[in-house]
Amino acid sequence: MATTPLHSTFRAPRITHRFVPVWRRNFLVWRKLALPSVLGNLADPMIYLFGLGFGIGMLVPEIGGVSYVSFLAAGMVCSSTMNSASFEVLYSSFSRMHVQRTWDAIMNAPVDLDDIVFAELVWAASKALLSGVAILIVIAVFGLVDSRYVLWLLPLIFLVGLSFGALGLVMTALAPSYDFFMYYFTLFITPMTLISGVFFPAEQLPAAVQVAASLLPLSHAVELARPLLLGKVPSDVVLHLAVLAAYGVGGFWVALGLTRRRLLG
Amino acid sequence: MPAVPHGLALASPLEIRGLRKRYGDNEVVAGIDLRLNAGECFTLLGPNGAGKTTTLRCALGLTRPSGGEIFLAGLPVPERAREARMRVGVVPQQDNLDPDFTCAENLLVYGRYFGLDDATITARIPELLAFAGLESKRDARIQSLSGGMKRRLTLARALVNRPDLLILDEPTTGLDPQARHLIWERLKQLIRNGTTVLLTTHFMDEAERLADRLAILDAGRILTEGSPRDVIAAQIEAQVVEVYGDWNGTARNGTSGAQAWAEAHAGAFARRYEVSGETAFCYLDDAAPLMAHLAEQSGLRYLRRPANLEDVFLKLTGRDLRD
Ligand SMILES: Nc1ncnc2c1ncn2[C@@H]1O[C@H](COP(=O)(O)OP(=O)(O)O)[C@@H](O)[C@H]1O
Ligand SMILES: [Mg+2]
């Protein structure tokens, strides 16, 4: 017997400017550890990019008219944005919600849960943007960036951060403990990375797998990021943006409802 | 025309009518009424699981009641709970200071949640740290603080918005005596300066020391309410004699010690008596005849004292263990 009816738990999010001090709280923590945090976020994609990029690049001379490492660069920007946002809303938000009880403290002040969860989402996207920019700078230094449209990558990275932040917050709302997040990475994030054109073009995969990839957000991020990095205008821009935005809005709505049920019951 | 604008001057800091909260089939708050007067310390006294925390969560608008009405700072809750919390400070049962920050940063960040600008908060930080006795810990990390220091910082944090009403959920549970006394001194100081305080506790001495009025809560119901003195006077006899030890008198039906004595004689002297373990508790208005009788017994030991809140509490909530 639910004490709160379902339509009330999953009512529309009510976002106000009061999310800002919550965002600032997370930013202040990050600022204390900014350098190790950025370097840590940079290490993984760089190892992949240069390890795989030059290693496989020896075997595969070109993909679609560009070197393999140039092809891979866009995939790395997208997947590391995804990972950065996901880690933040899974491990860090869960810690603030469940372990440190930071959200409880904030809800005793005049800030509602809607604003707290929204702040976590925007913060995850902001952090993804920070590490995305760091990656862009490094690959630009290595001459892997065509500068014509590269600034469009910044809002794109932020949007990808919002999409995956929102999806991750659904998991956080459901998680009994940190262990839960391993399944999310193993069963969802990693397979999606493999079929979404990050490491190799998705066209060579079976049709059913391609359909699956097209229903998930990462492939749409890659479809936009790759041409932009190579100085070209992407096709189907509206479709790709719509899918990413839909995951962001839908994921956030569901995550907020589940979090309300968990914390305000 | 009367000079009271919108009746606000008459508003109680917190008024609760007929509050109910059910979890599944378990009604953990089963019809609570209370009304705080501005400037008083009101204490909800109850054993573990009585529904104290749940009542506070409802009052703050953090969970939706199954029934009843709540007005916090004159505003209906949960509808306008967020606005009402502007005027309220909360010390939660579980410490939830921000471990990533120093003491001063904890206060700064928390003040921002009230919409205060950094200059205003920064100006308040020294006095808040002084109030908590933590001036020297301004830049200390939370992990380096003792339990008592954390509680005091949590109290200081709850004052960052200069609240009219301060709500504390078991503020001294788990603290050593020195730390508890320090918290009590600070609370008395706040009450003297006009802050309304709502406190939950399961410590009688805490309630007796601080409360202008208290309510004893058990299984989601208020069993009695009033000033500590009135509650004691209304609920229980003035004197208590505790009897224990061996007894050399003639026992009935195989009992021994204080229990045997109580079964043979306590009813003749005490209005009410109760045997718990090795001890007989005799409640009476005039202890003199019983004391004279006990002086003639051999082997028994006894202790005479005025009745206190603990006697009321145990009478009303029983002696069974709660977890
Ligand atoms: N979210 C919840 N879901 C189910 N039962 C709960 C929940 N919160 C509290 N309870 C139950 O309600 C009762 C009262 O709890 P609480 O208000 O925390 O008591 P107190 O603070 O007086 O110790 C307890 O039996 C507790 O197990
Ligand atoms: Mg409690």
Automatic annotation (TrEMBL), chain A:
Keyword Membrane: yes
Cell compartments where the protein resides: Cell inner membrane
Residue span(s) of domain ABC transmembrane type-2: 36-262
This protein's UniProt keywords: Cell inner membrane, Cell membrane, Membrane, Nodulation, Transmembrane, Transmembrane helix, Transport
Entry similarity comment: Belongs to the ABC-2 integral membrane protein family. Lipooligosaccharide exporter (TC 3.A.1.102) subfamily.
Complex and partners: The complex is composed of two ATP-binding proteins (NodI) and two transmembrane proteins (NodJ).
Protein name from the UniProt record: Transport permease protein
Organism: Aromatoleum toluolicum
UniProtKB/TrEMBL annotation, chain B:
Alphabetical UniProt keywords: ATP-binding, Cell membrane, Membrane, Nodulation, Nucleotide-binding, Transport
Keyword Transferase: no
Protein name: ATP-binding cassette domain-containing protein
Family per similarity comment: Belongs to the ABC transporter superfamily.
Residues of the ABC transporter domain: 14-244
Alphabetical list of Pfam families matching this protein: ABC_tran (PF00005)
Organism annotation: Aromatoleum toluolicum
Entry keyword Magnesium: no
GO MF terms held by the record: ATP binding
Matches recorded under InterPro entries: AAA+_ATPase, ABC_transporter-like_ATP-bd, ABC_transporter-like_CS, ABC_transporter_ATP-binding, P-loop_NTPase
Family annotation (PROSITE patterns): ABC_TRANSPORTER_1, ABC_TRANSPORTER_2
Superkingdom of origin organism: Bacteria
